[in-house]
Design goal:
Layout lengths: L6 E7 L1 E8 L1 H12 L3 E2 L10 E10 L4 H4 L7 E8 L4 E9 L3 E10 L17 H9 L3 E17 L2 E15 L11 E2 L5 E8 L4 H9 L9 H10 L7 H8 L3
Antiparallel strand pairs: 1-7, 2-11, 3-8, 4-5, 4-8, 5-6, 6-7, 8-9, 9-10, 9-11
C-alpha cells in the first residue's frame, strides 16, 4: 500500500471502461470465469485474494453541476476514497474526455480530510486537491460504499481489468468525513460489472461478452446514488429504477 504523501498521475489515451448490470446468479458465474482466467488484484484480500471494500466521499457544487454534467463539470469527478480499514485515504481527481483518461491521486492520513474545510489552503501533499475544491466550489455531496472483486492481466497495450461491485449503499453527506453508518441501498439485487482496457477490446473480454450475453450500459455510480437519494418516499418504483440504471 502506498505511503501517506505518495502522489501518482496516470494519463491513458484511448482508454475504455465498459459497464454492465448483472443479476447475482450471472455475477457469480462471471466471478468464477474471471478467477480462472485473470490474476488477482495485488491489493486484494479474502480467500481468492481479490476482494476489498471501498468507501468514497464525492464532491459537487451547491447546484449539483457534476451530477447534472454541466459544462466542464461533466468531464471530471473529485472524491476521497478509503479502501477497507486502511489507516489512510486517497484524494482523487478523475478526468475523462472522448480519447483520454487522466487520474491523479494522493494518499493522505485520515485526519487530513477535515483540513479541506479551511481556507487558506492546507499544507502537505493534498494541497493540489484542496485548491481545486476551492476554485471549482466543490463540497461534500454523498458517500458511496460497496464491495469489489478485482482481477487483471497484462496485454500488449497495458493492463486489462475486470471488477464486480456489489452491495452499493449511498448516504447524503455535507461533512468532511467517511461515515460508518449504514446507507440507503442502491440498485438492490444488482451488481455492476466493469471491464477496462486500452486501444482495443481484448479477445478474452469479447468471449466474456458473448458467453454471458452482456449488454453495455452507461452507468455512473455517482449519478445512480444521487438519483436514489433524491427520490421521494413512495416515489418511482422498479420500472423507474430500471430507467435510472440505463441513464448513465
Amino acid at each position: 500500500m502506498p505511503r501517506a504523501g505518495d502522489d501518482s498521475r496516470v494519463t491513458r489515451f484511448y482508454a475504455s471502461e465498459i459497464k454492465f448490470i448483472v443479476d447475482p446468479d450471472r455475477a457469480e458465474r462471471i466471478r468464477a470465469w474471471a478467477r480462472s482466467r485473470l490474476d488477482a488484484d495485488p491489493h486484494g484480500a479474502g480467500a481468492a485474494r481479490d476482494e476489498y471494500a471501498i468507501r468514497s466521499l464525492y464532491f459537487d457544487t451547491e447546484h449539483l453541476d457534476v451530477y447534472h454534467r454541466r459544462g466542464s463539470y461533466a468531464r471530471g469527478k473529485y472524491r476521497a476514497r478509503r479502501y477497507g480499514h486502511d489507516d489512510g485515504l486517497f484524494l482523487e481527481r478523475k478526468l475523462r474526455t472522448r480519447s483520454l483518461l487522466s487520474k491523479r491521486r494522493t494518499r493522505v492520513a485520515l485526519d487530513a480530510l477535515q483540513a479541506l474545510d479551511a481556507n487558506p489552503l492546507m499544507d502537505g501533499p493534498g494541497r493540489w486537491f484542496h485548491k481545486r475544491l476551492i476554485v471549482r466550489e466543490l463540497r461534500p455531496s454523498c458517500q458511496i460504499e460497496y464491495r469489489r472483486m478485482a482481477r487483471q492481466s497484462p496485454t500488449p497495450h497495458g493492463t486489462m481489468r475486470l471488477t464486480i461491485d456489489e452491495g452499493l449503499q449511498a448516504r447524503r453527506m455535507d461533512e468532511l468525513l467517511l461515515s460508518d453508518a449504514p446507507g440507503t441501498p442502491v440498485a438492490a439485487g444488482r451488481l455492476i460489472l466493469e471491464i477496462k482496457f486500452r486501444i482495443e477490446l481484448p479477445s478474452l473480454f469479447k468471449r466474456l461478452i458473448e458467453e454471458f450475453a452482456l449488454s453495455p450500459q452507461p452507468i455512473s455510480k455517482y449519478r445512480l446514488a444521487m438519483d436514489t437519494l433524491r427520490r421521494r418516499p413512495g416515489g418511482p418504483g422498479l420500472e423507474a429504477e430500471d430507467a435510472l440504471l440505463t441513464a448513465g
